[in-house]
Amino acid sequence: MDEARAVLDFFSRNEAHLGRWEPARPDDFFTLDGWRKRLEGYRDQALAGASYRFHLFEKSAPHQVIGSIGLSNVIRGVFQCAHLGFGLDARAEGRGLMLEAVNATVEFAFETLELHRIEANHQPQNLRSAALLRRAGFEIQGYARDYLFIDGAWRDHVLTAKTRRT
Predict the structure, then answer these.
(1) Which of 42, 64, 107, 146 could staple 53 via S-S, CB 3.0–4.6 A?
(2) pTM for the full model?
(3) What stretches of the chain adopt beta strand conformation (E)?
(4) In this structure, are residues 46 and 11 in contact, taking their beta carbons and an 8 Å threshold?
């Protein structure tokens, strides 16, 4: 809960940068109280094994959040899968930081959670995410028309996945 202000600052700084790729935000998204409640929810979801959210911090400024990454929609049983989502501060792009975070999160998913598959989807025009996922070993699985309601409209998405090699 101590990180609520740093997370709020990250999303506030990057509202325009990340907003075009993400769903509409609830009314309390850009409030400190909203982030305190949201972080509590993240903790509860992790304890329940349903999702896991991590924040990236700058080494030279350890109290400043520069990114967010998470596994959501964890499904057990015969599927053993989760969805990967991420966002990086505009000022931190191009340094390999999100690739490092994706690789660490995938390792956590495969080794600690023992999941078999991680799915990550992106809009076709999001070339940075496409390149990142390709470098991280995700393979294109398909194309979904009108997949998610993002930035005021239903948006197509490229579906990618990475499976655990056993």
Answers:
(1) 42
(2) 0.93
(3) 52-58, 61-75, 81-88, 117-122, 139-150, 153-163
(4) no
